[in-house]
Amino acid sequence: MALKSSDIDQMAILARLNIDEAKTDQYAENLSKILEFVEQMQQVNTDEVEPLAHPLDPIQRFRADQVTESDQRDRFQAIAPQTEDGLYLVPKVID
Which helix (H) or strand (E) holds 7? Predict the structure, then answer.
């Protein structure tokens, strides 16, 4: 797919880009090469290829989900300015 300078001008208008008129031919050539490469890639048969979540296939090392601290809710709520039914009350900051 070969792009023309007028195509680049139209894309620049739509994308609200200020492109130097002297470089539109160069942009058209470069973008045409990119689109040709994309067309080549679309022709590759990927039916047998499994999708990857990550290219390096890392192994997650999870730690055991164990409680390591004791319940100190009553102690913390005792020093809080206001609590009610086990909840912390805070002043309204937005009307």
Answer: helix 5-15
